[in-house]
Amino acid sequence: MSLWRFYIILKTLLTYGLDDLIPERFQRWYFKLARLSAFWLYNRHADKPVEVRLRLALQSLGPVFVKFGQMLSTRRDLLPAEFADELKLLQDQVSPFDGEQAKKLIEKAWKIDSLDDYLAHFEIEPLASASIAQVHAAQLHEDSPFAHTDIVIKVIRPGIAETMRADVELMKTMASILAKILPDGRRLRPVEVVKEYEKTLFDELDLMREAANSIQLKRNFADSKQLYVPAVYSDLCRNNVMVMERIYGIPVGDIAALKAQGTNMQLLAERGVEIFFTQVFRDSFFHADMHPGNIFVSREHPEDPMYIGIDCGIVGTLNKDDKRYLADNFIAFFNRDYRKVAELHVDSGWVPRDTNVEDFEFAIRTVCEPIFEKPLAEISFGNVLLNLFNTARRFQMEVQPQLVLLQKTLLYIEGLGRQLYPQLDLWKTAKPFLENWVKQQVGVGAIIRSVKENAPYWGEKLPEIPDLVYDALHSHRELQHQQSLLIEALQERNHKPSVVPQIGHVAAISAVLVYCFKDELWLSAALLLVAIVCWLGSHSKK
Fold it and tell me: Could you tell me which residues are annotated as the binding site for ATP?
């Protein structure tokens, strides 16, 4: 099966002419011979640009490769812009599997004989179908203990895990080969990219993880007027089945429907930005797959619009240091303080400590000053971040996975915001939020909050402090006493006279005299041996 799949992949790559991606200087005689031996697999799409051929090849290879292409489209730090733009066109649209089979999978997961035990109605035809799972609408019984009766059930495709594992293993093999033959193999790190993709892909297979992410995000935005996350019925969730409240919002990409109901488009766009920065800087937990297919707008109160977010399979997190450095970077960019940006990258460890700050500052200024010549409303915040990462890459900046997710999400949010309200000034919307957040992290208020947060811990440890102080002082005194004894012993040993070296000297002189005047070779050798033993003994004692 693996060999046949490998042949299918190889056939697809060659018939789309993707061997053109290998530079001519790396196409050695044995490579050309192997390529000629597969003469029947000729390039059937020579009239198309290579980036288009790459997209078409991934589409034809199936859902695993489609999702890989989607992930690569966000890695603008690794790919040329024309490739990233083309891969963005990949659509994760897959034919649904049989609804009856989905029904049996749910029954097996719930360990019941019939869905009628839980459901008043189950729609065989899926609402939506993607590469990893599909969604069915259903209704719970009226006497159900849950608050809502209308639900959706997400079911993992049967056999998809095995297919994914086989394809990912082949992708790893291909990545290892590419890492060796591509001129940029070390920088592009194809093996690491595939491993990152593997983790993301298999995380999405675990619907219990997605359910937990949804519950966390819903709790973070409880009572919020900006974002609503559908309720998850965790008692009915399994690793391959997820049950959640059904929502009836308008897809965010349906601009005509949003305008038809009188939605405040400017407020909607600005709230999208606020939601993103709230997730990143307040919660350190952000939805990292916020493409238009996962976002809806509530039909209620169009003058005060609310987003509805679904599909939390991929989330990102930032630690405290990353958040602080990122916020400081954004603010420094707002103020065109490139020296500060360079210093922050060095301080955070994102670039090597020995980086020349002046050179780095000049490189950032060279890239970013032309951008700031445009009106703020025309500047892409996501592209500025992208330019920053690309510039830092020239100074050996290691790719930070959490920042790649952040960049991807920011590009989604900004693109969506501009689509909803073309005049959106993301800089103007984001700057006050970031400045307020930074102010909250420093000063007296931040100290008071830190004390409050740590008070229970210190309250628990406070009774132990006297004993700990006494033990530390006692141990210190004992250590000082031991050091004094050791020093005295060494001094006594160094100053104590020793007769052994003198015996050695006398034996050596005697050996010479005996040999010169008595001509007794054996006695002279014996005395010399005694001398050597004495000298070695005294030296070893030192």
Answer: 127-135, 154
